[in-house]
Amino acid sequence: MQVCDFNNSFHHFRVDFDIRQPITVSSKQPFTMNHVRLPIECLCVMDDITYMLGASCKTERVNVTENVWRDPNADFCVVASADDFLLLKQFASCGQEASNEIDPDRPLQLERQAGKCDDAWCMHRIDTRRIDGELLADGDAVYDAIMANETVVSQTEYELVDGTKVSLEYPVKCINVSDREHYYQVDTGPVLFPDDIPNVSLPIERFRLAYVAHNCPQWAEFIVNVPTPVDGSTAVNHYSQSRRIETTANRMIAVR
Hints:
This protein has 256 residues and is mainly beta. The chain has 2 domains: 2-127, no CATH class; 130-255, no CATH class. Helices cover 5% and strands 52% of the residues. Strands 1, 2, 3, 4, 5, 6, 7, 10, 11, 12, 13, 14 and 20 form a 13-stranded antiparallel beta sheet that branches.
């Protein structure tokens, strides 16, 4: 069987102001073209569409001599399919925004912004390399692969309440194993988690970030990043909401 070679799979996107004004840029830039490459953290197939989650970075000013980091600053990551994008930004607290340097009537650095890739980038591509892997049959096989420092990829498949099939593929970064009790337990992420988010116009807007845990083929638990109250008036985006999926198909695959 084959799995994604996450060590060599990347998302590329480019903005070029000589071609168009991107809808994702809300400040004056000291460049005319910028090309970005991000490692891929997770793949998700839903309704026969493949989505990818890019690695997180920080909001920044590019090609400057000082003051690189934007204030207020945010964790930033991209979710994308061939046609659609979702930008996720997490500030110190929920609802935090800044003024728009180009159009004062529009906000800057929205927490969630979705749209068509052609309106955001003059080009983008999702480069996923596939590589041979071997299915690990049980906890002992997982233990042997981990102790041999082999790369392990996991797959989790399940159905949503509405019957939509979800297929996740992600690298196993953190894992617990025991050759005494013969178990393994994945604790890794971030991965994509399709949630019941109201009033969305694009399917990609259903995604939240999550970490996933499982220690058998039959179920998985996700800890989902959601707005989380910390006192009477403040909320932060935090991995705080546990969701259990009772009927999954989890697979552990060693890259060999």
